[in-house]
């Protein structure tokens, strides 16, 4: 089997809250087709760790590498990234980049992140995106790049058999609580329209900062419950099973795809989200409901709540079957082969 280096596989001493199931599932699915040289050798050296494998591998798969400037020693890691891109060509190593977002969710060191992003668009041998919009976005940056950009929907696990029927919440917003997700803007709009008592809402996830979480708490009341808690799959299963809608309020400026979106569908959630990226792709397939502008959000929410028992259809069954992690791995193997 051909050998590849997978980024990131970080040191095992990281806290569980930073564990990313996407990288775990990605590695587990493709190791049937490739030898992943760093699979059992997690590193705390960042991108410098790649060098010791460079002349022993055929591929490097990068995820979120554009966020490198924010890492420890970010400037030097970024400098080495550009050197690595040149060295990989000399070593005959193919660069495979997964373009998860339009741009980094964090605005820190944005000019450096933009340099990395543009380099990846221009120099990657293969670019994977989980949104059809990613193909257009790449082509807009570098004409002709669409020939190297390949759209595969974000893989999903079908766990709908875990879903229950009783409900406690009209709206569930879950996942890391961060400014780019638009939760604060949603709460402000909720209050501006005087809808703060119209729905039973649970907002739950680990907040990136206490200041941001505090700005959300001012909008809590008997109907709007906001919790700064890490949730695992067991808890998530229960929350989705007791919620009529899983709502995503993401800002459109940076988002292309979302693992939380796919987890919500996999658990049988009735999703409402912005009409952008992977959300727009799934809406076209009749799998979720989307809103184009913030003012339209509550109209869509009310319509979905009124027809809550009728949202499941054959499109969801077909989508889940066609986009398993195993199928994704097969697609990657065929592409690189």
Explain how this protein is built.
- By secondary structure, the protein is an alpha/beta fold.
- The protein has two domains: 3-151, Rossmann fold, CATH 3.40.50; 160-321, Glycogen Phosphorylase B (Rossmann fold, 3-Layer(aba) Sandwich), CATH 3.40.50.2000.
- Helix content is 37%, strand content 16%.
- The protein has twelve helices and twelve strands.
- Strand 1, helix 1 (21-30) and strand 2 (35-36) form a beta-alpha-beta unit.
- The chain is globular.
Low-confidence stretches: 12-18
Structural class of the helix and strand makeup?
Answer: alpha/beta
First CA to last CA: what distance? 11 Å
Number of helices: 12
The number of E-state strands comes to: 12
Q: Domains counted in the coordinates: how many? A: 2
The ordered H/E elements are EHEEHEHEHEEHEHEHEHEHEHHH
Q: What labels would you give this structure?
A:
single chain; alpha/beta; Rossmann fold; 12 helices; 37% helix
Secondary-structure topology with pairs:
Elements: E1 3-7, H1 21-30, E2 35-36, E3 59-63, H2 74-91, E4 94-99, H3 110-123, E5 126-129, H4 132-141, E6 149-151, E7 169-174, H5 183-192, E8 201-205, H6 210-217, E9 224-228, H7 233-241, E10 243-247, H8 259-266, E11 271-274, H9 277-284, E12 289-291, H10 297-306, H11 314-322, H12 325-336
Parallel strand pairs: 1-2, 1-3, 3-4, 4-5, 5-6, 7-8, 7-10, 8-9, 10-11, 11-12
């Amino acid at each position: 089997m051909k050998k590849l280096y997978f980024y990131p596989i970080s040191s095992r001493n990281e806290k569980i809250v930073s564990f990313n199931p996407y990288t775990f599932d990605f590695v587990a699915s493709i190791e049937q087709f490739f030898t992943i040289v760093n699979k059992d050798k997690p590193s705390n050296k960042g991108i410098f760790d790649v060098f010791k494998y460079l002349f022993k591998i055929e591929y490097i798969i990068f995820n979120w590498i554009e966020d490198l400037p924010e890492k420890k020693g970010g400037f030097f890691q970024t400098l080495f990234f550009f050197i690595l891109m040149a060295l990989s060509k000399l070593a005959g190593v193919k660069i495979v980049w997964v373009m998860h977002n339009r741009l980094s969710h964090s605005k820190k060191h944005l000019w450096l992140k933009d340099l990395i992003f543009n380099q990846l668009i221009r120099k990657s041998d293969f670019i994977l995106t989980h949104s059809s919009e990613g193909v257009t976005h790449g082509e807009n940056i570098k004409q002709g790049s669409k020939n190297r950009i390949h759209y595969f929907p974000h893989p999903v696990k079908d766990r709908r058999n875990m879903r229950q029927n009783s409900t406690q919440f009209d709206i569930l917003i879950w996942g890391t609580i961060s400014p780019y997700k638009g939760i604060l803007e949603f709460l402000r709009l909720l209050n501006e329209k005087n809808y703060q008592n119209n729905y039973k809402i649970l907002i739950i996830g680990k907040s990136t900062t206490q200041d941001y979480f505090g700005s959300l708490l001012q909008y809590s009341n008997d109907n709007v419950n906001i919790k700064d808690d890490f949730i695992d799959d067991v808890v998530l299963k229960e929350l989705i099973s007791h919620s009529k809608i899983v709502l995503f309020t993401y800002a459109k400026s940076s988002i292309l795809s979302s693992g939380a979106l796919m987890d919500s569908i996999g658990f049988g959630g009735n999703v409402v989200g912005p009409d952008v990226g992977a959300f727009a792709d799934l809406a076209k397939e009749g799998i979720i409901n989307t809103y184009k502008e913030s003012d339209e959000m509550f109209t869509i929410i009310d319509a979905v709540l009124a027809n809550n028992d009728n949202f499941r259809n054959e499109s969801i069954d077909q989508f889940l079957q066609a986009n398993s992690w195993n199928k994704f791995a097969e697609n990657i193997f065929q592409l690189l082969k």
